[in-house]
What does this fold into?
Amino acid sequence: RGSSTVVMGASFRSTAQIEALAGCDRLTISPDLLEKLDADFGELPRKLVAGAAEAVNVAAIDEAKFDADMAADPMATEKLATGIEAFAKDLQTLRQRIADELGG
It folds into this structure.
């Protein structure tokens, strides 16, 4: 849609959720799920194609609208906070794992 924003999927609970986004440029995946994906040698067809989204008519949203929508939806606010916390925890686990692998 011409936006410079990068959307990064996160907080996955299963490999099926990750596989459903095959074709997405950026995902954050926990070390546990990375191991499961690494052990799977089956077919992984592309599910997402960048151009397909251009055909969908979606109303524009600005920061004020986004903030109002978030304030009106406690579940969205909670899930966003939970996702950020899980991302930070997974990042720390990944950093430790890399340090361990590098002998440090």
Observations:
- Residues 15-101 form one domain.
- The two ends are 43 Å apart (CA to CA).
